[in-house]
């Protein structure tokens, strides 16, 4: 069966520091991968998605970037964090073919001080 | 553009009572529709999905949803809620118009269960 791992679970970072959140998927090949941000009391905002290695689509202009160095690895990064980057970050995957639901990791709670 | 509206921000239901969570969507073709549940501090778990065919869809944990094209709705129901159903519920829409890569989520409905 497929599993998705996201880490760390929680992270407290000072303003201006760099960020790296990692997500890996097991048990499938060539998945679509996604990064979402969820602000308190709001829905999910799609940040990036990827349909293959090195293929990244950005949904909103922001202080973040994403990379997919391997088929089942998706990384969310920032060079300098802002206070507004605080939130709950979720990674998700879906089958790369057809119209399939997305499956989510357990999320990372990011607090910027 | 596709959109999802969940008109109820917060619903409180007594344990054992029936539940209906509303979801309305806007989409230019036959949509793909999903319901997810999120417990505090956790990721989202898929409850059920609708792609085509029978408009009444059965999901996990005793949930079901009905697709009504004429009303652009996909409401989630459960005949008898349990305390463990307390969580946040999200409706999502996707489909071929915008590629299978992207879903649009509603802002969620928080469900509280009282004894």
Q: Could you characterize the architecture of this molecule?
A:
The complex is a heterodimer of chains A (113) and B (115). Chain A has 113 residues and is mostly beta strands. Chain A has a single domain (3-112), classed as Sandwich (Immunoglobulin-like). Helix content of chain A is 0%, strand content 57%. Chain A contains no helices and 11 strands. Chain A has strands at residues 3-7, 10-13, 19-26, 32-38, 44-52, 55-58, 65-70, 73-78, 87-94, 103-104, 108-112. In chain A, a hairpin with a 2-residue loop joins strand 5 and strand 6 (55-58). The model of chain A has no long low-confidence stretch (mean pLDDT 91). In chain B, the strands form 3 sheets. In chain B, strands 2, 5, 6, 10, 11 and 12 form a 6-stranded mixed sheet that branches. Chain B has no helices and 12 strands. Chain B has one domain: Immunoglobulin-like, CATH 2.60.40.10. The radius of gyration of chain B is 14 Å and the shape is globular. Chain B is mostly beta strands and 115 residues long. Chain B has strands at 3-5, 10-14, 19-21, 24-26, 32-38, 44-50, 56-58, 64-68, 73-78, 87-94, 104-105, 109-114. In chain B, strand 8 and strand 9 form a beta hairpin. The interface between A and B is medium-sized, with 23 and 23 residues.
Number of helices of chain B: 0
Shape of chain B: globular
Order of helices and strands of chain B: EEEEEEEEEEEE
CATH class of chain B: Mainly Beta
Query: Which percent range describes the beta-strand content of chain A?
Result: over 45%
* Structural class assignment of chain A: mainly beta
CATH-wise, what's the superfamily of chain A? Immunoglobulins
How many beta-strand segments of chain A?
Answer: 11
Total number of domains of chain B: 1
CATH architecture of chain B: Sandwich
The CATH class of chain A is identified as: Mainly Beta
- Strand element count of chain B: 12
**Main sheet: strands, sense, barrel of chain A:** 7 strands, mixed
Instruction: Give the averaged pLDDT of chain A, no decimals.
Output: 91
* CATH topology assignment of chain B: Immunoglobulin-like
Give the count of helical stretches of chain A.
Answer: 0
């Amino acid at each position: 069966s497929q599993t998705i791992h996201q880490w760390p679970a929680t992270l407290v970072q000072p303003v201006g520091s760099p960020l790296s959140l990692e997500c890996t998927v097991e048990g499938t090949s060539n998945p679509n991968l996604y990064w979402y941000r969820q602000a308190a009391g709001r829905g999910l905002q799609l940040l990036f998605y990827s349909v293959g290695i090195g293929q990244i689509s950005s949904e909103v202009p922001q202080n973040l970037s994403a990379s997919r160095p391997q088929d089942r690895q998706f990384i969310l990064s920032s060079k300098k964090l802002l206070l507004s980057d605080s939130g709950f970050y979720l990674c998700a995957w879906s089958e790369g073919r057809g119209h399939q639901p997305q499956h989510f990791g357990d999320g990372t709670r990011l607090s910027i001080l | 553009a596709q959109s999802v509206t969940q008109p109820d921000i917060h619903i409180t239901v007594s344990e054992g009572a029936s539940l209906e969570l509303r979801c309305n969507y806007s989409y230019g073709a036959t949509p793909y529709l999903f319901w997810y549940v999120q417990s505090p501090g956790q990721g989202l778990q898929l409850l059920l999905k609708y792609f085509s065919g029978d408009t009444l869809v059965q999901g996990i944990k005793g949930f079901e949803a009905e697709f009504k094209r004429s009303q652009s709705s996909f409401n989630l129901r459960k005949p008898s809620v349990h305390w463990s159903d307390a969580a946040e519920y999200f409706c999502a829409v996707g489909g071929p118009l915008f590629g299978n890569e992207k879903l649009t989520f509603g802002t969620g409905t928080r469900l509280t269960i009282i004894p």
